[in-house]
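I am sending you the entry underneath: sequence plus fold tokens. Let me know what the token row says about the fold:
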Amino acid sequence: MNNVELAESWQPYLNDEFVKPYFKELSAFVKREYDTQVCYPPKNQLLEAFNLCDFNNVKVVIIGQDPYHGEGQAHGLCFSVNEEIKHPPSLINIFKEIETDLQIPYPKSGNLVRWAKQGVLLLNATLSVRAHEAGSHQKKGWEKFTDAVIAEISENKENVVFLLWGGYAKKKGAKVNKSKHCVLESGHPSPLSANRGYWFGNKHFSKANNYLKSKGLAVVRW
């Protein structure tokens, strides 16, 4: 996509998408937006989730909706922010749940590259956004592409944990084959949902690790 190359391990599964009409339209739209507007993440990090998490290593998939749209926040991984960036509310609640679930101290850094490198695919449904305009790149084709990503993982792998937080992620993960994968669902970690009791106490991080362990797979160091 406009000189942004997909990581090699993903190419056999996703190269077919790039020649489809919807993806050509999406590429043209994204190029136009990045040429004329301030957009996030930086263009060279549009496919960063795939660069940092090899297809063969995927063991957990977390589905987000849109990249953060503030300056310096988004870097291609859902819920993650660059070093030294203040933690957004949803990320704070994710770390708080990990703290109580696994008795792990709250981390200083909100950069989740450390998760991605262990096989956690941090996938936003839409991979780009215009600065300060949430949802501005939705319904342009990204959702179709990320549906294909989820379908390929479901079909070609087994024993992957899908963490579906909130109604949007649950819809996105509806086609995952539950007979060969573990699907964990809860409310979204955003304050609106979390403060109503739909997030805290879901224990998704220990449940994910227990499942991985039961399949003889290495657990994630959250």
Remarks:
- The chain has nine helices and six strands.
- The chain has one domain: 8-215.
